[in-house]
Design a protein that fits this description.
With 336 residues, the chain is mainly alpha-helical. Helix content is 84%, strand content 0%. Helix 7 runs antiparallel to helix 14, helix 10 packs parallel to helix 14 and helix 13 packs antiparallel against helix 14.
Length: 336
């Protein structure tokens, strides 16, 4: 990056690279020293996913089998199993969350250590060519912004994928036709996400640049406060600070506006899929007999199917946001 492009607080840093999944792959390498913790977390996740999906199937058995035959003993057994499943899920979830937070913070520590070590090895020209605030924000703010992604995002993504596979299997086991019908809206989801991704990434890159400018100016202002007061530039400097703050606010609002488009799109498609299932079951079943318990269980699984989709959408938003910061962090680590 040329010195003239970054040597002022009011010049946006720009990266011309396309969306690079290599940065995400590089980030995942920080998981290597913690393989045992990751494996234990994955085990907890599989168990929690399986237990969380037992409820609708137990309700199906109760409605289609136990209630018609007035089997009170069977209903009590099912209720007891449901209660035990709920307690087991809560206990496993507690331990999983504790492991996830510990793992995420350890990775944050490792990345920050690598960046600080790299900064100590860089030549004088690196520090002469840019405001110190633009260097400081990479060590503190940008790495802190990765905390949620590493503490919960990566593990939750795997959890949602596992849950998704379980739900798809259960939906096909209940009724193949309804399962295929509920998945007809997925192509619209993928097209919508690809359109949103392009604008969302640019918006977060702009917000990253504006944050960098503001931090650079604040660092210069605090370091040069004696000069500011000596030349009576308080009002002038406050005006510059106000302008930079508004740019940060406006860029953040623009980025969040695009970020919220993903869950809205998912909610709309989930509503459409549920409506298709009801209409097919009631009016267009072509002679297919669908038991009440099966329909209730299937609707429940269909609603749960979209929950991990929403989770994956949120993870995707986090990746888009974090990618703008990862580009800056890895740019520093790759500096010659």
């Amino acid at each position: 990056m040329a010195a003239k492009e970054v040597n002022k607080y009011n010049v946006d840093e720009s990266l011309e690279n396309e969306f690079n999944f290599g940065h995400l792959k590089r980030l995942l390498k920080y998981l290597s020293p913690h393989k045992k913790t990751v494996a234990l977390t994955l085990l907890f996740m599989v168990c929690i996913s399986a237990l969380s999906l037992a409820g609708p199937y137990l309700i199906k058995i109760a409605i289609d089998t136990m209630i018609p035959t007035k089997n009170i003993t069977g209903l009590v057994i099912l209720a007891s199993i449901y209660f035990c499943v709920f307690v087991a899920s809560a206990i496993l979830l507690k331990f999983r969350m504790r492991l996830m937070v510990k793992l995420g913070q350890q990775i944050i520590h490792d990345i920050r250590t690598d960046v600080f070590k790299k900064l100590q090895e860089l030549p004088f020209t690196y520090y002469d060519s840019r405001p110190h605030g633009k260097i400081l924000i990479r060590v503190v703010n940008y790495i802190n912004s990765l905390s949620d992604l590493l503490s919960t995002g990566l593990i939750d993504m795997i959890t949602n994928l596992i849950t998704l596979f379980f739900i798809i299997g259960l939906m096909f086991s209940l009724n193949v036709t309804l399962a295929l019908l509920s998945f007809t809206v997925l192509p619209f989801l993928f097209v919508g996400i690809m359109v949103i991704k392009k604008f969302q990434r640019k918006a977060w890159q702009l917000n990253s640049a504006k944050n960098s400018n503001l931090t650079a100016y604040m660092h210069e202002s605090i370091a040069g406060m004696k000069i500011t007061q000596s030349f009576v530039r308080e009002k002038k400097n406050f005006g510059i600070f106000k302008k930079l703050s508004h740019e940060v606010k406006d860029s953040w609002m623009g980025a969040v506006r695009w970020q919220f488009m993903t869950p809205i799109l998912i909610d709309i498609l989930a509503f459409v899929a549920t409506g298709l299932i009801y209409f097919f079951s009631l009016y267009f079943n072509f002679g297919i007999v669908i038991q009440t318990g099966v329909l209730i269980a299937f609707i429940s699984y269909n609603e749960r199917f979209w929950q991990p989709i929403v989770g994956l959408g949120n993870f995707y938003n986090s990746i888009i946001t974090a990618m703008a910061y990862l580009e800056r962090i890895f740019e520093t680590l790759d500096e010659k």
